Amino acid sequence: NLNFFNLNNNSHWSIDLSKISSLRLLLGKNKPIPNSSFIDYLSILKFLFVNRHRTVSEIIGGSNIFSTLWDPLTIGVMNTSSNYASAKVLSNVLKKTVLRGDKYCYIYQPKINWNKTLIQPTINFLNNHGCRVQYKSMLRKIDVLDNAVTRLYFTNQVVDVLKNEIVVLSIPPSNLQKLLPQYTFPSSYNSIVNVHYKLNRNLKKKFKHSIIGFIESNTQWIFIKKNHISITISNANYLNSYNTEEIATLVWKEVCKYLNLKIGIPDYQVVKEKKATVVQSPKNFDIVEKIKNLPNNLRISGDWTQSDLPCTIEGSILSGRKAVT
């Protein structure tokens, strides 16, 4: 089950993923959100056919469950407010998840962390296949001749590119703009903030669920780990000017309200990524689709290069596969 807490009215509810399906929702067999009716869930039908230039709020902003379902879902999936997020991309996500049944709706987490789950295995794979991973070697310049990349200038070396070699750039659009100024790339971003609190065993036991979704709050997701909890706040540009103490205090007050306890703030760490993703708006997806006529031997990859999927780990992996096939 996914468990939720509405900070505004202190209500708790849960969603049984095994019972989530578009048919059950439309037939009124499952109404996971308090004070909702099956009619409210008919709004999912609006995502079956959407214009690629529309935003989520334009499609679904008048729904009775907009603030408790559609907007939090959009922010969680796309790191973008419903006022700007592409309805077409969210539609694609719904078609790959809810509209296909409960087997496609589960949340997967690393057993320990992403480093041990994805990053280190990838590095090991590359090393075992003769690829060298070099650090502290930033790409500064690219030479293009006769519509082909011919030379790469790094901080500590220059690499000549042979005619039969392919160059794959997996870097954010802000960096890519400096290397390829003749092209237009997305230039607006949204932040993601994570706050980690170290907890003793007794306090950790107060959390009855391993994942908790917060509604109408700054906190959006709490993940219970071995000796700490991790909080995620997406679409967090409004927190860019806050210092770490202000953020940690703001979020901890909400955690205390969930626990219905007054507890002094424990040791914490705040991680703020100001350019976590591009703003996933129809405008930015249009910009991505218009990136044409790249040098013949150049490929670009990264979550932002997908124009039909959100900026996620899955999108990154698929973009990499597309770049090399």
Write a concise keyword list for the protein shown above.
single chain, 325 residues, alpha+beta, three-stranded antiparallel beta sheet, 12 strands, globular
Q: How would you describe what is shown here?
A:
30% of the residues lie in helices and 21% in strands. The longest helix is centred in the last third of the chain and has 16 residues, at 244-259. The model has no long low-confidence stretch (mean pLDDT 91). The two termini are 38 Å apart. The protein has helices spanning 22-26, 38-41, 56-60, 66-78, 87-96, 114-128, 173-179, 201-204, 244-259, 282-289, 313-323; strands at residues 2-6, 11-15, 139-145, 148-154, 158-160, 167-169, 189-198, 211-215, 221-224, 228-233, 268-278, 298-300. It has 325 residues and is α+β, with helices and mostly antiparallel strands. The chain is globular. It has a 7-stranded mixed beta sheet, with helices on both faces. The protein has a 3-stranded antiparallel beta sheet with strand order 3-4-5, with no helix packed on it.
The order of strands across the largest sheet is 2-1-8-9-10-7-11
Show unreliable segments.
none
Which outline best applies?
globular
Order of helices and strands: EEHHHHHHEEEEHEHEEEHEHEH
The helix count comes to 11
Mean pLDDT: 91
For the terminal residues, how far apart are their CA atoms? Answer: 38 Å
**How would a crystallographer describe the biggest sheet?**
7 strands, mixed
The percentage helix is 25-40%
